[in-house]
Amino acid sequence: MPTHQGRGIAGHLLGEFLRQADGAGVPVKLSVLKGNRAIDLYRRFGFQVVNSTDTSLQMRRG
Question: What span, in angstroms and rounded, lies between the C-alpha atoms of 54 and 44?
Fold first, then answer.
């Protein structure tokens, strides 16, 4: 919801998820629609684009 955007909630949740994945030794991949502003968030957490389609980007944490 717009009233909750920009408060760091997604970053907090993603950070916790990635800490657990790292602890378990599990690689993390995701797909996101091109133009989605979450792409910047994912990049801040170390995700890189590994493939793309006309509409989406596949990202992996390297």
Answer: 23
What the block records as the tokens of 37 is 């502003």
User: Which stretch of DSSP H or E encloses residue 22?
Assistant: helix 9-24
| 20 Cβ contact partners less than 8 Å away, ≥ 6 residues apart | none
Total domains, the chain: 1
CATH number of the domain that 16 lies in?
3.40.630.30
Q: Does residue 56 surpass a pLDDT of 80? A: yes
pTM as predicted:
0.85
Output the pLDDT for position 13.
95
